[in-house]
């Protein structure tokens, strides 16, 4: 077409190119719109399926529990991140109805998918063992050996493995004091290391954040609190006396007095004695608190929850510095050494009177 005079020629516009660029932009927006939630869901699902890093533990699945109920329990125990995701995963795999009642060893270091696999295996045949409060590592090892769960020498060796102790978060040369006394259900083929791991995990489960907060209030580190708790465990029999006995020991520490705990002497001797002699009290050992001021180097046994609680929550104030056992699980408490001497004399007379009465009854 002829150009009119005085007009400037206009460039030709490629309509097809412009339309293609528009379509590319639209497609990119659509892809991004779809990709963002897909990627987000994938990342969220990956998190839900990932391990929680909770230590292995036995879990009881009750008869009639649904996949949802099982998931809720595992989430509450910290073994999985999300119970609902557990249920959906089990249903998607078509195995929700195959989850059976029984006892299982489940490990939070495994992802949810593998936890489901573990629950599809046959339930464990478990051995029940009760560890009383106050046992030493050696006594614990002997009890586990007797139950057929461990070799005592191997268990002792495990409880002093430096790498394991550090991994478990214990700042001590051994696990003495952290092998929590409890009634446990262990599989027959459990290893010595698994036994120790579960006991320490149980300790840190009962030693709560509020307990950690109390450490500064009583002026103790965790290891010092466990050490004192182990002494309270063996000195106190009556539950009502534990906070008072803990307060007496804490007062002695603050006054730079020797603790003079008979339980520490027995630990140093390596034997329990109904009555300690003057020679016993002189035994050369850093654990002998009749010879050395302050706390012993470490726990003299494995304290229970009540003694740990008493150590962290002693009576608010006390003038007592001494106590002597009556022989019936209770004590006579004294403020001064002279009062303590009188109390010991009275207890000795009562003990002799009971012995004489028992002998007379036997003669008849």
The dominant shape is elongated
How large is the share of residues in beta strands? 5-15%
Radius of gyration: 33 Å
Give the biggest sheet. 2 strands, antiparallel
Order of helices and strands: HEHHEHEHHHEHHHHHHEEH
Low-confidence stretches: none
How many domains is the backbone divided into? 3
Strands of the widest sheet, in order across it, are 1-2
Q: Considering DSSP H and I runs of 4 or more, what fraction of the residues is helical?
A: 40-55%
Distance between the termini: 145 Å
Number of strand elements:
6
**Structural class determined from secondary elements:** mainly alpha
Mean of all residue-level pLDDT scores: 89
Distinctive features:
3 domains; two-stranded antiparallel ribbon; mainly alpha; two-stranded antiparallel sheet; Dna Ligase, domain 1; 14 helices; 364 residues; elongated; 50% helix
């Amino acid at each position: 077409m002829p150009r009119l005079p005085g007009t400037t020629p206009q460039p030709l516009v490629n309509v097809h190119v412009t339309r293609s660029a528009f379509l590319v932009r639209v497609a990119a927006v659509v892809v991004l719109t779809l990709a963002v939630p897909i990627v987000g869901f994938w990342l969220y699902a990956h998190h839900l399926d990932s391990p929680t890093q909770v230590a292995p533990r036995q879990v009881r699945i009750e008869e009639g529990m649904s996949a949802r109920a099982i998931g809720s329990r595992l989430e509450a125990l910290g073994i999985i991140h999300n119970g609902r995701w557990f249920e959906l995963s089990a249903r998607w795999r078509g195995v929700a109805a195959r989850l059976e009642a029984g006892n299982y060893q489940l490990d939070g270091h495994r992802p949810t998918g593998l936890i489901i696999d573990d629950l599809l295996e046959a339930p464990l045949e478990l051995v029940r063992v009760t560890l009383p409060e106050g046992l030493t590592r050696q006594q614990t090892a002997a009890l586990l050996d007797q139950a057929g769960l461990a070799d005592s020498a191997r268990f002792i060796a495990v409880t002093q493995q430096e790498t394991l102790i550090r991994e478990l978060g214990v700042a001590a040369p051994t696990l003495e004091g952290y092998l929590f006394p409890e009634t446990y259900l262990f599989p027959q083929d459990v290893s010595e290391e698994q036994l120790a791991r579960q006991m320490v995990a149980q300790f840190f489960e009962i030693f709560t954040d509020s307990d950690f907060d109390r450490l500064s209030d009583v002026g103790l580190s965790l290891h010092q609190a466990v050490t004192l708790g182990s002494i309270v465990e063996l000195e106190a029999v009556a539950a009502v006396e534990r906070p008072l006995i803990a307060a007496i020991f804490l007062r002695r520490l603050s006054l730079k007095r020797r603790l003079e705990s008979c339980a520490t002497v027995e630990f140093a001797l390596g034997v329990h004695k109904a009555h300690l002699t003057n020679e016993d009290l002189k035994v050369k050992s850093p654990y002998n608190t009749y010879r050395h001021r302050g706390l012993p180097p470490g726990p003299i046994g494995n304290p229970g929850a009540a003694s740990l609680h008493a150590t962290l929550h002693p009576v608010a104030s006390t003038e007592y510095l001494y106590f002597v056992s009556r022989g019936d699980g209770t004590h006579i408490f004294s403020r001064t050494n002279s009062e303590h001497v009188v109390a010991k004399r009275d207890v000795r007379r009562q003990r002799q009177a009971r012995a004489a009465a028992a002998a007379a009854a036997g003669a008849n």
